[in-house]
Write a structure and sequence with these properties.
Layout: H1 5-10, H2 14-20, H3 22-46, H4 66-69
Length: 70
């Protein structure tokens, strides 16, 4: 198996590179929050019954609660 393109270009995988570079880490966080906002909005609009009867919902991953904010 070869080296991932990002790792070959930057000398570290995406997450290690982000951990060592605060500006890049912020870019990744902002991009993930944007993606979560779009995806969750589409799910809520298209599949509202998915949430019927839920008493607890956990936002795992984005880092800033974007999904729960919707």
């Amino acid at each position: 198996m070869g080296t991932a393109a990002f790792e070959a270009a930057h000398g570290a995988d995406l997450w290690k590179y982000a951990a060592a570079n605060p500006a890049f880490n912020k870019l990744i966080d902002d991009a993930m929050a944007c993606d979560a906002g779009l995806a969750v909005s589409a799910i809520i609009e298209s599949c509202p019954k998915v949430f019927d009867g839920l008493k607890t919902l956990v936002d795992v991953g984005g880092g800033n609660g974007t999904a729960l904010g919707k």
